[in-house]
């Protein structure tokens, strides 16, 4: 750690009073804390001066319809996008380099400074020639990626629809089987109850119509006999 941060002890003495009261006093902790302070400051600088200020300036350029300012900030945003992409890897593998975060702050200031015009220099000398030479290949790759993504989306969409349809058919078949079983059980129960009722009430129901028929025949015979006597 002492080789990576040789001036860490002096840096601890140069910290503001509030940081010196909050941070530990030993040299190792002070070295780590100074690196953390540098990281916080670099993030604030990138956020405020590298993102918010250029965003507001781009808004002003669009509002005023100034082509010169518009092109200037478009070049800056292209360089800043590349810087953000590279920063992801450098923060993981190169953050141990002394004054790494200070170099990031200096780079952002160099990009924004109207005297150095760093973003314009990088774009005109490196980015624009590279993109111009590789533009056709990049466009073809993007078109292929779009086609593949569309085909992949359609493929997975069809598979999802097939799975959903299969699940729906299985659920309908299962519910139909359960319903038919319940109806079959109900019909068997009704049939058995009907047969039991017929067996239980059979003799009573057969004697009652026979008695009624015998009574009717007796009345008809008596009426016919009385009619014959009256006629004679």
From TrEMBL:
<protein>
    <recommendedName>
        <fullName>Receptor expression-enhancing protein</fullName>
    </recommendedName>
</protein>
<keyword id="KW-0812">Transmembrane</keyword>
<feature type="compositionally biased region" description="Polar residues">
    <location>
        <begin position="221"/>
        <end position="232"/>
    </location>
</feature>
<dbReference type="InterPro" id="IPR004345">
    <property type="entry name" value="TB2_DP1_HVA22"/>
</dbReference>
<comment type="similarity">
    <text>Belongs to the DP1 family.</text>
</comment>
<feature type="region of interest" description="Disordered">
    <location>
        <begin position="194"/>
        <end position="232"/>
    </location>
</feature>
<dbReference type="GO" id="GO:0005789">
    <property type="term" value="C:endoplasmic reticulum membrane"/>
</dbReference>
<feature type="transmembrane region" description="Helical">
    <location>
        <begin position="36"/>
        <end position="56"/>
    </location>
</feature>
<dbReference type="GO" id="GO:0008017">
    <property type="term" value="F:microtubule binding"/>
</dbReference>
<dbReference type="GO" id="GO:0071786">
    <property type="term" value="P:endoplasmic reticulum tubular network organization"/>
</dbReference>
<keyword id="KW-0472">Membrane</keyword>
<dbReference type="GO" id="GO:0071782">
    <property type="term" value="C:endoplasmic reticulum tubular network"/>
</dbReference>
<feature type="compositionally biased region" description="Low complexity">
    <location>
        <begin position="201"/>
        <end position="213"/>
    </location>
</feature>
<dbReference type="GO" id="GO:0005881">
    <property type="term" value="C:cytoplasmic microtubule"/>
</dbReference>
<dbReference type="Pfam" id="PF03134">
    <property type="entry name" value="TB2_DP1_HVA22"/>
</dbReference>
<keyword id="KW-1133">Transmembrane helix</keyword>
<feature type="transmembrane region" description="Helical">
    <location>
        <begin position="76"/>
        <end position="99"/>
    </location>
</feature>
């Amino acid at each position: 750690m002492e080789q990576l941060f040789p001036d860490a002890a002096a840096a601890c003495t140069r910290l503001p009073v509030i940081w010196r009261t909050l941070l530990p006093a030993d040299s190792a902790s002070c070295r780590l804390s100074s690196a953390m302070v540098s990281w916080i400051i670099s993030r604030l600088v990138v956020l405020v001066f590298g993102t918010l200020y250029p965003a507001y300036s781009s808004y002003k350029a669009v509002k005023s319809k100034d082509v010169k300012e518009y092109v200037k900030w478009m070049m800056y945003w292209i360089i800043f996008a590349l810087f953000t992409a590279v920063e992801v890897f450098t923060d993981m593998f190169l953050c141990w380099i002394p004054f790494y975060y200070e170099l990031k702050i200096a780079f952002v200031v160099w990009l924004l400074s109207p005297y150095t015009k760093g973003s314009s220099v990088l774009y005109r000398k490196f980015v624009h020639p590279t993109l111009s030479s590789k533009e056709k290949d990049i466009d073809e790759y993007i078109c292929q990626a779009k086609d593949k993504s569309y085909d992949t989306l359609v493929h997975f969409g069809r598979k999802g629809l097939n799975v959903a349809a299969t699940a729906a058919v299985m659920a309908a078949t299962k519910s139909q089987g359960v319903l038919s079983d319940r109806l079959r059980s109900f019909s068997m129960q009704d049939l058995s109850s009907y047969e039991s009722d017929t067996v239980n009430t059979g003799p009573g129901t057969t004697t009652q119509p026979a008695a009624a028929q015998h009574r009717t025949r007796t009345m008809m015979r008596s009426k016919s006999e009385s009619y014959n006597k009256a006629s004679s």
